[in-house]
Amino acid sequence: MSNSPVNPILASRSFGWWSLLFWLTLGFVLEAMHGFKIGWYLDVVNDARRLQLTLAHTHGTMLSLINIVFAVSMADGVKRGVGPAAKCLKWSAILMPAGFLLGGAFSMGADPGYAIALVPIGGLLLFCGVLLAARAASNS
User: pLDDT truncated to tens, each residue of the chain (140 aa)?
Assistant: First the structure.
């Protein structure tokens, strides 16, 4: 077992690509449910569910791309603050779309499920990650 530290830039790049694959796959599933007219997804009473699932796909895809861009933009050398920025960006890319996904999957009528509470936590982590990434980029 290796005790070498994980390179946060390589971890962000790998996470970004796998996350992008996951959220794009969800997009294909949503399109299939739309194409096959699945009531659980398309019925008028499920508008909130459809919106939450669409938001999960969109935010997940966008945040995956942000992780990839972060890794590419920081790849020219190790900068102070890169590790915390990478962790914040990774967790924002997990929590925000997961809040939308679970909030939509377990919606309560016109309201999203309780997991929607993960969205603002992910948003705060996104803000912190972008701030730390901007500071790390400025210190180069």
Answer: 556 678 999 999 999 999 999 999 999 999 999 999 999 999 999 999 999 999 999 999 999 999 999 999 998 766 777 999 999 999 999 999 999 999 999 999 889 999 999 999 999 999 999 999 999 999 86
| Residue 18 to residue 22: CA distance in whole angstroms | 6
- The angle subtended at Cα 53 by Cα 9 and Cα 19, nearest 5°, is 20
Question: Which residues make beta-bridge pairs with 108?
Answer: 111
Beta-carbon contacts of 17 under 8 Å, excluding residues fewer than 6 positions away, are 64, 68
List helix spans (H) across 36-117: 39-42, 47-73, 82-105
Q: Are 89 and 70 in contact, with CB atoms under 8 Å apart?
A: yes
**Dihedral sign of CA atoms 106, 111, 117, 118 in order:** positive
pTM, entire model? 0.92
CB-based contact 104:52 (threshold 8 Å): yes
Q: Is residue 19 within a helix (H) or strand (E), and if so which, with residue range?
A: helix 8-35
